[in-house]
Amino acid sequence: MSENKPVILTCAQPTGGLTIGNYLGAIKNWADMLEGNTCFFGIVDMHAITVDYTPAELRKNSLSCVAQYIACGIEPEKANMFIQSHVTGHAELAWVLSCITPLGELQRMTQFKDKVQVQAKTQGLGSNIEGDDSIENQDPTSRVSINSGLLMYPVLMAADILLYNADAVPVGADQKQHLELCRNLAQRFNQRYSDTFKVPEPFIPKFGQRIMSLQDPTRKMSKSDPNKNATLFLLDDPKLIKKKIMSAVTDSARDIELSESRPGLSNLINIYSAFSDQTPESIVQSFKGKGYGDLKSDLADLVIEKLKPVQERYHNLMKDPAYLEAVLKEGAEAAQKQAFKMLRKVYKKSGFLNRS
Ligand code: AMP
Ligand code: TRP
């Protein structure tokens, strides 16, 4: 690993299949960064246990996730791909950082509040919480049973980043707030204990940064959406891709145009743009005089064509788990080296006695 190359780090949770939101908002951009950078790509299984999960599923998803990354173009020879729990240091650094993190900052995180709402619904408290205008000013945990890991999640995420002295962190727009917290924590630690961490820059792509649900285009497309037609997964077969795109929720207007007040249409154009590398303007131009049927049908063909090689590579990789495990072993060794180096520095500055 070259010392003077910029360090790029990013991570994703191994929760189920990856969506085209993950692909377009994250992984596709990571693949473009392999040259000229030292890359760390983490599969953050410790984050995945902050919500309801099944151990056997998590195990299966972690391996499948690596195969999906490689299939999407993350070449293992050019990147350190690792499982978070294989590297000692993430939880340890998170603990140190938690001691300089005000509780209120964590309670204000949008993703935390969203997840509290979801848990409130599953606990039958939905109607108490929804529609409550003063919720912003309340302790969102007061009426719901929330595990503290969910609250601590952004601190663990900051540790994931700061442990590797990352220069840039490619993420989707939804992670901006977490990145801001990470930068604050790095600065706070540096001020208190002297210069230690690099303050990382978020890298948010221009196109395709926020792919919305096909069924409710005002919400982000998510792996965990209960509406099965809302989310396009990388491993969906062509028939299913076609069905989901053709039934995407739009509006009753006829023409294809760029308009912020038409979120369903904007989302389809955005997906088209990201998969074809064409600008939204040129897509609108090429659908002049045509309607939703044409746009959806062409978009489905495009997505099927672009995902076909990814799916073929994935299925071949899954036939060889020993290869995938070897990739992870090598990735964890490189990550561990860096993690121990940083953790030692942090412990020393924090006043922990040197271990002889
Ligand atoms: P997650 O699925 O939440 O683990 O996210 C993994 C990565 O994909 C993160 O960088 C997210 O910002 C990105 N991501 C997830 N969903 C979307 C989406 N609908 N649009 C764009 N990026 C997304
Ligand atoms: N919170 C991120 C997400 O939900 C995943 C994540 C965890 C991450 N640690 C990270 C992303 C470090 C970038 C860097 O998408």
Q: Tags for this entry?
A:
2 domains, three-stranded parallel β-sheet, 14 helices, binds adenosine monophosphate, 356 residues, binds tryptophan, Tyrosyl-Transfer RNA Synthetase, mainly alpha, two-stranded parallel ribbon, Rossmann fold
Structural features, described:
It is a single chain. The chain has 356 residues and is mainly alpha-helical. Mean pLDDT is 91; it is low at 127-137. 38% of the residues are buried. The protein is 52% helix and 6% strand. The protein folds into 2 domains: 7-209 and 320-350, HUPs (Rossmann fold); 228-316, Orthogonal Bundle (Tyrosyl-Transfer RNA Synthetase), CATH 1.10.240.10. The strands form 2 sheets. The chain has a 3-stranded parallel sheet. Strands 4-5 form a two-stranded parallel ribbon. The chain binds adenosine monophosphate and tryptophan. The site of adenosine monophosphate has 16 residues, from helix 1.
